[in-house]
Amino acid sequence: MSSIPGPGGAPQPNPYQQPSTQPPQAPVQQNPYAQQAPPPFPQQTPQGGPPAGPPGFGPQFPVPTPAPRKGIPGWAWGIGGVVLASAAWAGTLFATGTLWASGDFGGHAYEKDLCSVAQLSSFEGRYEKGTEKNDETKYSSKRPTVDQSYCSFDLKDKESTDEYSSTYITYNATWHKATDPSEEYADLAKSNEDYDYEGSKTVVTRLDGMGDEAWLTTETGDTDKELNRMEVNVREGWFTFRMSWSDYSASSSGDSKVPSAEDVEKWLVADAKATLKELR
């Protein structure tokens, strides 16, 4: 039925037209429980700029996303996981009287201010601490299942004339109170080799004489073979520790060269051992 013309020929609503019975459409809302795509592995900061935020804080290595299981509905795995978790909690509570089965930390006590015990003497011949407030960064966290403490120093190379160059020494200590990290620690350490970005090469090797196990990560440039990053990762019982050296200098300007990998490894291992001793 057509509209009735109004004054001036403008169409007016037809008073005899039946109103629509179709309910208005509700706006589409996003499902708040929808799974988001997992984030990629942490990106290595390329040479020439400082790390964004506390580098490496949290889990010391990223845990790979498990492959999806086929043939069994997701809800079934969810129920199974709840049952297994409940059984584990019940067993732990029955055996120990506490909810979590805390492991041995190798005598390393929790330290809120890791910078207060972090050792740096081996690097002092080549570097000096920055004097600005933000040249030292620290962070700590105590949770029912895990405690963490982090420290970072921004150092200046005494042999460099580049005012924008920086070298970072970082420390990460983690006290695992709910899960034993031993079974996956080696693979997580070796996974550093999977982080190669264009222009770099990363190699992970075993270190002897530190904790229950220790690993050395060495990252160099593909072309100049200069050292970009090195880190020592140590596990002792349910305690894990990392100390790393990262260089962000314009060494291509020719004013200086970064230290050799042999020197940095010697300094890093010595100060990592000294820091671990301070935590006992």
| CATH second-level architecture of the domain at 114-278 | 3-Layer(aba) Sandwich
Q: What gap, in angstroms, lies between the N and C termini? A: 89 Å
Number of helices: 3
Briefly, what CATH class of the domain at 114-278? Alpha Beta
- Classification by helices and strands: alpha+beta
Tell me the CATH topology of the domain at 114-278.
Answer: Protein Transport Mog1p, Chain A
Q: Give a short account of the largest sheet.
A: 8 strands, antiparallel
Report the helical percentage. Answer: 10-25%
Strand content: 25-35%
Order of helices and strands: EEHEEEEHEEEEH
Radius of gyration: 28 Å
**Unreliable segments of 5+ consecutive residues:** 1-11, 26-101
Region (Disordered): 1-69
Protein name: DUF3558 domain-containing protein
Biased composition (Pro residues): 8-26, 37-67
Biased composition (Low complexity): 27-36
Describe this structure in words.
The longest helix has 23 residues. A hairpin with a 5-residue loop joins strand 7 and strand 8. With 280 residues, the protein is an alpha+beta fold. The strands form two sheets. Strands 3, 4, 5, 6, 7, 8, 9 and 10 form an eight-stranded antiparallel sheet that branches. Strands 1-2 form a two-stranded antiparallel ribbon. Helix content is 18%, strand content 26%. Among the domains are: 29 residues; 165 residues, Protein Transport Mog1p, Chain A (3-Layer(aba) Sandwich), CATH 3.40.1000. It comes from Streptomyces mesophilus. This is DUF3558 domain-containing protein.
